[in-house]
Design a protein that fits this description.
Layout: E1 5-7, E2 10-12, E3 16-18, H1 27-36, E4 40-42, E5 60-64, E6 71-76, H2 85-98, E7 103-108, H3 114-125, E8 131-135, H4 149-152, H5 155-168, E9 173-176, H6 185-193, E10 198-201, E11 205-207, E12 210-211, E13 218-219, E14 229-232, H7 237-250, E15 256-260, H8 266-274, E16 279-282, H9 284-289, H10 293-308, H11 327-364
Parallel strand pairs: 3-4, 3-16, 4-7, 7-8, 8-9, 9-10, 10-15, 15-16
Antiparallel strand pairs: 1-2, 5-6, 6-14, 11-14, 12-13
The structure holds flavin mononucleotide.
């Protein structure tokens, strides 16, 4: 079955993309994911000066199910890529050359400087990447340099920085949103005013994964100390779905959505699509299951389309959005349904009564 979809003029072989993070951390793993069947990938976020990016160990924490021990929530305090931009530029070129039909998206982040954002945009663009994702949403570490979610939490900055990138970008630009705000529509609409062609949502949710009761130290603990991190995996899916539905209902026509957050199966991915996402990104799911999970994503989507008679992936996008309403409307629908049922019951009663009367008449007519 044809699982392709065209988004912002780019043809994706299928709607499944690696989300920015460890699964897309260099050319080798990007190539491996395309070989496995991913339609596209958002590479790990890059910046101009990797020497300023210093990662810590440990930087991950897990929340496990009490019953099955399965990982249900995942926290990270990982920064953006600490690999030099020159290396990345070579690798972007190489990946695009080897995989011209897969979609490669460069995720970029910089300090609050028009010159820096535009320089990074131009140098990435020259490598032949297909689109940009602006990282306005990493909620830890980079924020201390006023980057990442420090920009995404302030709609005026989101709009301004997006417009800087759009001034020089010749390819589509998606803005990746932080969920750590009250209303995701505000920064998203600001990015759209700045010229964004699409919105990616969500990045991780600020979290503290736990506290070690022996040492009394919050986790993950680095030399005895920690910072709040970003929460992902299946525990965040309902929140991500809610935010994607708000975008599906609230973005102007033509602005596309890339849904992210807790996708681990085709079922999860289809839910995002039904709520308005035309592509779906997976990060933690790939870290936990490996790149081959895309096989189930493709098979499950094809099966769903066949069963529900969808002729194209695009037809699925937003199909469940008309079923959001207001509480008042739910109440009046419930009352109408009750009245309808009561009416049916009394009609049934009348017919039963009529039946008995007619039968009695038949019996007594002799
Ligand atoms: C270890 C780790 C590193 C990440 N690094 C980045 C990053 O460099 N840039 C970015 O935009 N998002 C990054 N993310 C966020 C993911 O792309 C994604 O938005 C988030 O984890 C929710 O999706 P998921 O549940 O599929 O992981 C990272 C996530 C994890 C778990």
């Amino acid at each position: 079955m044809d699982l392709s979809i065209t988004v912002n003029g780019i043809k994706f072989p299928n709607p499944f993309l690696l989300g920015s993070g460890p699964p897309g951390t260099n050319a080798r793993v990007l190539a491996k994911s395309f070989d496995a069947g991913w339609g596209g990938a958002v590479a790990k976020t890059v910046s101009l000066e990797s020497s300023k990016v210093v990662n810590v160990v440990p930087r991950y924490g897990k929340l496990r199910s009490r019953e099955t021990n399965e990982v249900i929530g995942f926290q990270n305090i990982e920064l953006i890529s600490d690999r030099p931009i020159e290396v990345w530029l070579e690798e972007f070129k190489q990946v695009k050359k080897e995989y011209p039909n897969n979609v490669l998206i460069a995720s970029i982040m910089e300090e609050y400087s028009k010159e820096r954002w535009q320089e990074l945009t131009k140098m990435d663009q020259e490598t032949g990447v297909d689109a940009f994702e602006l990282n306005f949403s990493c909620p830890h570490g980079m924020t201390e340099r006023k980057m990442g979610s420090e920009m995404g939490e302030h709609p005026d900055l989101t709009e301004e920085v997006t417009s800087w990138v759009k001034e020089v970008a010749k390819i589509p630009v998606w803005a990746k949103m932080t969920p750590n705000i009250t209303n995701i529509k505000e920064p998203s609409l600001a990015a759209v005013r700045g010229g964004a062609d699409g919105i990616s949502a969500i990045n991780t949710i600020l979290s503290v994964i736990g506290v070690n009761l022996d040492t009394l130290r919050p986790m993950p603990t680095v030399e005895g100390y920690t910072v709040p991190g970003g929460y992902s995996a299946q525990a965040v899916k309902p929140i991500a779905l809610r935010m994607v539905s708000q975008l599906g209902l609230g973005l102007p026509e033509g602005i596309t959505i890339s849904g992210i957050g807790g996708v681990e199966s085709s079922r999860d991915a289809i839910e995002f699509m039904l709520l308005g996402a035309s592509t779906v990104q997976v990060c933690t799911g790939v870290m936990l299951q490996g790149v081959k999970m895309v096989e189930e994503l493709q098979e499950g989507l094809a099966k769903f389309m066949a069963e529900k008679c969808f002729n194209s992936v695009a037809d699925i996008v937003g199909k469940s959005l008309p079923y959001f309403s207001t509480h008042m409307d739910l109440v009046s629908r419930m009352k109408a349904a009750k009245r309808h049922k009561a009416g049916e019951a009394s009609r049934d009663n009348e017919w039963a009564q009529k039946d008995i009367t007619e039968k009695t008449a038949e019996l007594t007519s002799d």
